[in-house]
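Reading a protein record of the kind used here takes little practice once its layout is understood. Each number in the token line that follows is a code from a learned vocabulary of backbone shapes. One such record is shown here in full, so that the layout can be seen directly:
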Amino acid sequence: MAFAGKYEFEGDENYDDFVKKIGLPSDKVEMGRNCKIVTEVAQNGNDFTWTQHFPGGHTTTNTFTIGKEADMETIGGKKFKATVKMEDGKIVADFPNYRHTAEICGGKLVEISTASGVVYRRTSKRIA
């Protein structure tokens, strides 16, 4: 599955319930609400660089290889180690308190995060 490209936030579902469930600090909650996150994905085979640009200049970048442990960072800035997998064409990563998947559907980047039964869905449209 080809993920490479640049994607801009289009819409989301269940944001408030999800960020409450994972305990995101209130300043980060407001930063993320309805913000036009731009996600850039560079892919070379199983090697990925996944960068999210937030309004105001904050950027988070995770570099990983499918099937190998990597140093990662959450949206809240927490650093951890994870092994990112590919399952049925979806990128799957287990973050400290939620599971995150990403896939390309109809040319859009669809990301789903699940924490204790609460499902957050973010859709981004391809812009490059």
Remarks:
- The CA atoms of residues 8 and 70 lie 25 Å apart.
